[in-house]
From TrEMBL:
Record flagged with keyword ATP-binding: no
Name of the molecule in the record: TIGR02206 family membrane protein
NCBIfam families tied to this protein: intg_mem_TP0381
Alphabetical list of InterPro entries matching this protein: CHP02206_TP0381
Membrane keyword on record: yes
Parts of the chain that traverse the membrane: 20-39, 51-70, 82-97, 104-123, 135-156, 168-186, 209-231
Pfam families associated with the record: TMEM164 (PF14808)
Keywords: Membrane, Transmembrane, Transmembrane helix
């Protein structure tokens, strides 16, 4: 194998801990801090709302554009490529949330986004590395969702309640049932309900099918409770200060 071919393969692989993995996370973290601090310090309420809504459209249109491009110019497979995986679906529909800003939607999304994108960020499942459209789509969708939900936490001061944990869990069960029906009719594997992803993922530690699904279900509420813990501690801290 020639040196140039080896370099090309290396540049187009997204391995855990590589620059293609770490740099987007660092960039998104820096962007989120600057975006949130600027909004809190410089924008009026209506400007804060418009800023995050425009950003949500950027995330959503990136996903729409990617799938439109694939349908037009690539071998698009409706059994595997539709944006029905949880993070892709949330990225597609996130402008609905940023427009209406309903608390019930926040209660669900804060747990879905933080819990759902965590595995995707830690163990990226990207077909083609930098500078492919899929690479940018993947990171814009997953990291963009995190930026949006933290914007609502730190700019609009929205926080989930204890019962929000169970609302998010029940909503997730509805999503799972819908994906089971879709997988049955399309003979597909959306939400990885019939087979684990081919790339390394946290599901690899949960056993084979169907055990990884059962284990995944068992850890969802503890995971959501862990996500809720900082909000609970923050509320207790404010209560103690007010006494």
């Amino acid at each position: 194998m020639s040196y140039s071919l080896q370099l090309t393969i290396l540049q187009n692989s997204v391995t855990i801990g590589s620059l293609q993995h770490i740099l987007p996370i660092i960039f998104a973290f820096g962007f989120a801090v600057v975006f949130i601090k600027y909004a809190n310090g410089n924008l009026l309420e209506i400007q804060k709302q418009k800023a995050i809504h425009y950003f949500a459209w950027f995330v959503s249109l990136t996903v729409i554009g990617f799938h439109g491009y694939r349908m037009a110019f690539d071998n698009y497979n409706f059994k595997t490529d539709l944006p029905f995986y949880l993070c892709s679906l949330m990225a597609l529909l996130i402008p609905v949330f940023t427009h209406f800003r309903k608390y019930l939607m926040f209660e669900i999304l804060v747990f879905w986004i933080v819990g759902g994108t965590l595995q995707a960020v830690i163990t990226p499942d990207i077909t083609d590395g930098f500078p492919s459209f899929d690479y940018f789509r993947y990171w814009i969708a997953h990291l963009g969702l995190l930026v949006i939900i933290f914007y609502f936490v730190f700019v609009f001061k929205m926080k989930p309640k204890f019962k929000s944990v169970f609302k998010a869990f029940l909503a997730l069960q509805v999503y799972v049932l819908l994906m089971m029906a879709l997988n049955y009719f399309l003979d597909a594997n959306y939400f990885y309900l019939n087979q684990k992803p081919k790339s390394a993922s946290l599901l690899d530690y949960f056993g084979d099918w169907p055990y990884y699904i059962l284990v995944g279900q068992l850890i969802i509420i503890p995971l959501f409770l862990l996500i809720y813990l900082p909000f609970h501690l923050s509320n207790r801290g404010k209560e103690s200060l007010s006494k």
